[in-house]
Write a structure and sequence with these properties.
Keywords: Ribonucleoprotein, Ribosomal protein, RNA-binding, rRNA-binding. With about 120 residues, the chain is α+β, with helices and mostly antiparallel strands. The chain has 4 helices and 4 strands, in the order βαββαβαα. About 15% of the residues are buried.
Length: about 120
């Protein structure tokens, strides 16, 4: 079975405290691990304003997980998202080779260095 690179972003309700948010994220991490997914990178973007109100909420906790897994894992993960009332929205995408390379460069801080050099010059 071929492994593909995926990126999933989900928004949790702003009504959660820090502990509840971490527990929810851990639950999704566990779903990935149980289905033999390899988590490559994770980012907690924190509380952000939504572009438009969703379920009468204007903010939400954003979290990104980049992972490598067989396609069947995505179905299992998204089913878990749908069953959890704390999830406001989610999006999972397949990454092509260019997106994977871009993410690696971003993680290594190449883009931050380029901005610093622009400011100096």
């Amino acid at each position: 079975m071929e492994l593909k690179n995926y990126e999933t972003v989900f928004i949790l309700t702003p009504l959660l405290n820090e502990v509840q948010m971490q527990e929810t994220v851990e639950k999704f991490r566990q779903v990935l691990k149980e289905n033999s997914a390899d988590i490559i990178h994770e980012e907690n973007w924190g509380l952000r304003k939504l572009a438009y109100p969703i379920q009468k909420k204007s903010t939400g906790f954003y979290h990104l997980i980049e992972f490598k897994a067989p396609g069947s894992v995505v179905d299992q993960l998204e089913l878990t998202y749908r069953r959890d009332e704390k999830v406001v929205r989610f999006l999972t995408t397949v990454l092509d080779k260019h997106a994977v390379a871009y993410n690696e460069r971003r993680r290594n801080g190449e883009f931050k260095q380029a901005k610093k050099e622009e400011v100096k010059g």
